[in-house]
Structures are given as structure tokens and as C-alpha cells.
Write a structure and sequence with these properties.
By secondary structure, the chain is mainly alpha-helical. The chain folds into 2 domains: about 40 residues, no CATH class; about 280 residues, no CATH class. Helices cover about 70% and strands about 0% of the residues. The chain is built from 15 helices and no strands. α4 packs antiparallel against α9 and α11 packs antiparallel against α13.
Amino acid sequence: MVISLICKVLGTSELFVLSQIELTKQFMTGRVAFSEYYVISYPFTSASLFHVLLMPIVFITGVLTHDVSQVDRLWSVVPSATIFHYAIHSYLNDIGSLRLYIYLAIALSWSTRLTYNFARKGGYSPEGEDYRWEILRSKMSHFQFLLFNALFISIAQLIILLCITAPAMILVEVGNEDLYTGDYVFATLLAACVILEAAADEYMWSYQSAKRHYKETGEVAKGFTAKALKRGFCTIGMFAYSRHPNFLMEQCIWCIPYFWGSYLTGNLFNWTIIGAPMYVCLFQGSTSFTEGITSAKYPEYKEYQKTVGRFIPNAGSHWVEVLEEDRTD
């Protein structure tokens, strides 16, 4: 009954799903070799198996190390690795396409940028657990947080990382058809989003570096004011128009591929839609939680929230930095 419901939601054949489950069982019990399973299985099936196998690993590692940022450390790698898997599978089955390889190249550039940014912030260090997990941990009992770690951090987040790559399956299924004008448009949009996200991260990194330097030495870095650094949160560049321009671009990067697939199939709705809304909901929730922490820590943040849009810039409104010498009151 559950499988029938899933098939109706995904718009696929129950026989196909059952055949994939049976094939996976044969692989897991050693009746089908990995090389054979890899080539003949539906690539989303083998990708799903990989993500399922990761779940207990990240959960147990988090429990043993008391550091639940294991999925955070995989975030920049797993989606691109999955798309790379789709590309290899397509190549082995002689249906590889330039369209898919272009998407893979963009995904790899996203991974490189995000990995670099995460690393320079210390995310891969043993003490690199996201500060928000510690705050959330303090609000729950040990058992509640253990359950949260299992269901959300270790399972739900990996499901989301799998599902945001689902639109790439449309590019796989289209095969090696010639590129259309729309392919160039969507690829350009994706590349632009990666570049804009990198720019937003640079603004944030510059501000945080200047703030840290000011706290340590009392010196104000070039391009900043003491007032802006004392305020505690970034309002420069893109952050004068959007409170989270990097998050906006991140959501676009994983929503645009769905519309790319819709363009190729000529249908607005298809089963690969499951990832985009999940990703948007995740960012809505995590951003609300983060802003709750920030507004409690920095008094001026509430004014910033009134002036600047969370993701989409407010029409005719942006943050204006007032220098002390410009004040008339």
C-alpha cells in the first residue's frame, strides 16, 4: 500500500519500483555484483542506497564525537557526488550528454566554492560544530536531542540532499539530444547564482574578519567604520539589500534545475519536484532560528529586519550606513 501511494505521487509504475527494490536486495545479499548493479540499476535507486547507508554512519559518528555537524561537513560534497554518479552511469550506458556534463561542471564549481568557504570558517576542525546545534541542544533533554539527531539531522537532511539532485534525472532521461536555447539560459542562470553566492560569502567573510580584527586590536579595517563593526552583523554590499543573499542564491541553485527539467519535458510538474520545496522549507526554518539568535544578541538587528528583506530585497528600501560625521542630530 505504501509503495502504491509512492508510485502515485511520483507518477511511476509500481512494477518498476518493485523491480528496483528486488534488484537492490540481490545486490545487498551478494547475488548481483556491484559492477552489474551499478550499470543496470536506475541511477536514482543506487544514489538512494548510498544516502541510506550514510545515515547510520553520520548518526553514530555524531553520538560518539558529541558533534552533530557531520552532515554539515558533507553538504558541499554529497549533491555533486550524486550528480557525478548520474553522469558516470549515463556514460556507461551510452546516453551521456553535454547538457548533463555542463550541469555537473556547475555543480562541481558550487561544491568547490562551498567547501572552501566552510573550511576557512573552521567547519572541518574537530571543534567545528555549528553553534546553532549547541543552542538547540541546550533547549532539549538528552533523549529529545538524540531523537532529533536521528530523525532530522541524520535522516531528513540526507533525504533532502538526495532529492535536490532529482532534477538531474530528467537531464539523464533526455539523453544526448542537441542543446536548445533554453539549456544555455538555465546553465547561465545557475552559473550566475554560484558567482553571486560566492560574492555574498566574500562580503560576509570580509566583515567577519574585520570585526574579529577590531575586537583583537581595536583597529578599524579599511572600508569599515567602528560603528559598523560594533554593531555585530554584516550590512555591507549585497547585505544592504538582502539579509541573506547567499541563502537566496543557494535556494535558487537547487530550484532552477527543476524548471530546467520542466522545460525539457514540456510539463510543469513531474516527480523531481520533491527536492526544491523541501530545500526552501529547510532554509526558511533554519533562517528563522538563526535570526532569533542574532536579534537576541544584537539590538539593532530588529531595525535591520524592518528595513531589509530576508531573502528578496524590499522595494525601494535598503540599509544605509550613517557615518558619525554625517549625523546632524
